[in-house]
Amino acid sequence: MRTSMKHAARITTTAVALLAATALSSPAAYAAGGTAPACVNRYVTNTPNGFDVLLTNKCGRVMSVQVVVNNAGDSPCYVMSPNVSKLYIHESIFGTYDRTAVC
To answer: What span, in angstroms and rounded, lies between the C-alpha atoms of 99 and 40?
Structure first.
């Protein structure tokens, strides 16, 4: 009886560790939604220190979007009214522009 309880405890511990590792491995992937619609204009400019993204909401309604960055943290979630622009500046030797996503 004790052996089966130890085995069950070991399986439970392993399962919890695997779930935690999966959740922590790419938190940005869980935060970002699908790609933002084309009515959210994005203009990406590479700079010596990283890149800039100028976002402009041309959708005619409030949009919540964020810049998704490869190999670095993503931008905050910007809640943008129609015809509003936001400039995201990424300064790092790591990270490249991936996409703009809804959030």
So the answer is: 11
